[in-house]
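[Automated response] Your request has been received and processed.

Submitted sequence:
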Amino acid sequence: MSTNSPTLQGEHIRLEPLEHRHADGLAAASAGDPVLYQWSPVPRGKAEAVTYVETALAWRDAGTAMSFAIVRVASEVVIGSTRFFNLERWAWPQGHARHGRGVPDACEIGYTWLAHAAIRSGANTEAKLLMLTHAFETWQVLRVCLHTDVRNVRSRAAIERIGGQFEGILRAHRMAADLIPRDSARYSIVAAEWPAVKQRLLQRMNREG
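Generated structure:
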């Protein structure tokens, strides 16, 4: 599977493949109130940001994830990060239309966090629109999963607003970057639901403008 990460260009933000040059920007973006990041693995300070980027690059090289810096177009400032991960390439039999495509059949979107000033700015909505569009329309995946800490009410509400379907709770679930197990609320969007989800995201973009 190709591990080349695309640049996803939006109107207000750009998702750039995460690289070492973004470490200072990540550290600056996460310098706000730590309570904001109590449910997310977020790098605090330059040293953690460097390690965060190195882990992301290792996952990219292993073909399991594509990580991005979220950059505000108007200022060229890094305001957070997000990634595709758990990239699944299914073993389709020869002769099947999806055999040998070399791109994911399913994936997850997560590890998303934003600087305090970017919360409720529309950046998260546009990031989800860019990533879901790429997943469903370029890769033509069959399913995208999203999950968040079961206690993260704000994140769960955001996923539900765009049409993510609640699948259940993963108990004592450990994300790769988490230090301890957690209970995660799991959601999914399947290909047949994507047109309606896309419309909701576009409507939200218009409102958040």
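Summary generated for your ticket: The mean pLDDT is 91. Helices lie at 23-29, 46-61, 123-138, 153-161, 194-208.
If you did not submit this request, please reply to this message.
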